[in-house]
Amino acid sequence: MHGADPRLVLGLHRSGHHRDILTAALDLGVTALDTAAPYLGFRSHAVLAETATDLLPKFALSTKVGFFPGTGGAEHSLDPSRLRLAIEKAARELGREPDTVLLHNPELSLTGLSPAEGHVLLGNACTALADAARDGLCHAWGVASWDARPLGRVRVDNLPSPDVLMVRAGFLVGIDLLDATTVLGTDWQAGETWGMSPFGGGHGKVWEEFDPRPFLRPHDGDLSRIQAAFRTAFHLPSATAVAVGTDDPGHLTQLVQALGAEVDTTAVSQYLWALHGHRQS
Questions:
Q1: Domain extent listing, the chain
Q2: 10 Å Cβ neighbour count for 125?
Q3: What is the CATH class of 7-280?
Q4: What is the model's pLDDT at position 72?
Q5: For the whole model, what pTM was predicted?
């Protein structure tokens, strides 16, 4: 995918939403920002508007809906009316319409349903987001899924096609999920694929034991293991953007530097073939 202008998206999951990381991102040329309604205890949108009102117009902003405050914690729902209200609330709290609104982990509400029931539920939810985009509440819509496999059991080829499919990416994603994501994106005719969580939620010890730098071209071998893992994540699965959460400007700088590295796609293909072979053995 070298040459396809890979993009880094600053994710705010587990972030303190501090202004300094937003200004650092802009200084580095990172102009994509991803959040979600439940982040920061369901205060993400309001805190962003309060602390960075002047900065938000400079970002392509994506957010997610599907989780709602409930007794004892967050509850998940694909009810179209609740989703529509959540999108309207996001725009009010942010003080602007989001560029992209993503349906947040829809697979959670599909558990235990038959494929036919899941098809109807997911279809209605997607229609609600597509209608919101049509009505100007956002510019684009999509689906963010932590585990795309349940979505693959629901027929999606005649549902509204998302502009964005956001999925887990990187070396810590198993081959079953990578395959399911590829099939889902093709069947659904998703416009773009975005990756997320390329480091598996902060499992730093993994990168002490595994060196992903051989997946880069030889002249990029001076990058760190973390940089190589991030850059290769754009191919596991193939993605035009990868979201990474950090409050450390230094870490963000390293990831931006890694965008210029070239991935050895032959090595990636061999890696995927090896994973398939291991699964079949």
A1: 7-280
A2: 24
A3: alpha beta
A4: 82
A5: 0.94
